[in-house]
Amino acid sequence: MSVTQILDANTVKSMLGIPSTISRYDTAITETLRATEQILADEMGLNDFVETTYTDKIDIDFIGVNEISLSYAPVISVAGVTISKKLQEDGTDYVLNKKLGIIKLVPLYTYFPTGREVIEVTYTAGYSTTSDIPSDLKYAGHLICCSLFNQQAHVGFQSERAGNYSYNLGNSKGSTIPEMARRILGKHRRVFARGMNIQ
């Protein structure tokens, strides 16, 4: 399944210095756009950027666990949380950190019972619309796309010279994510593995 299109070919052309009227690179740019959107989704730990419904069935292996991580974030809304098949009430039985996708039991001294798939959470995660996706995240995607496009013609080369013009791929050889894009992604990337329970 392909992810929702969030990047713009004309923006990539502008960043590459290609006039919008020049079409000879359009196919290559389109291919790198699709690859970049998948890379972004992977980096964000999402199946898709826009609102998608998920159901997590979570094991609790240790006594004393009172908070869990959902598989996907940011969370838009929770349709239901059950513990041992008993429906829980938001704000009374648990609180949700939407940005991180973490559910914490309340009061603090309570904890989840142990067992296989003892917790079931149905929720939507991602962004409500493509316009809700942070602009810096889209910018990082366009940077990655430009990097992929530039590397297509120079795979296997570290440097080239033509007359007085030369360039060096340097440490970015084989890299799909430029340093500035990495910095931006670091702001939005989850700080722990997807679906990892916090203990």
Report the average pLDDT across residues: 86
Q: What share of the residues does DSSP label as strand, in percent? A: 25-35%
The helix count comes to 4
**Distance between the ends:** 33 Å
Classify the helix fraction into a percent range: 25-40%
- Please state the CA-atom Rg, rounded to the nearest Å: 22 Å
Largest sheet geometry: 4 strands, antiparallel
The helix/strand order is HHEEEEEEEHEEH
Number of domain modules: 2
* Number of strand elements: 9
Uncertain runs are none
Strand order of the largest sheet: 1-7-3-4
How is the quaternary structure best described?
Answer: single chain
Structural class of the secondary elements?
alpha+beta
Molecular shape: elongated
Q: Would you kindly provide a written description of the structure presented here, covering whatever features stand out?
A:
The chain is an alpha+beta fold and 199 residues long. The protein has two domains: 9-47 and 133-156 and 166-188, no CATH class; 52-125, no CATH class. The protein is built from four helices and nine strands. A hairpin with a 4-residue loop joins strand 5 and strand 6 (102-105). The relative contact order is 0.20. The model has no long low-confidence stretch (mean pLDDT 86).
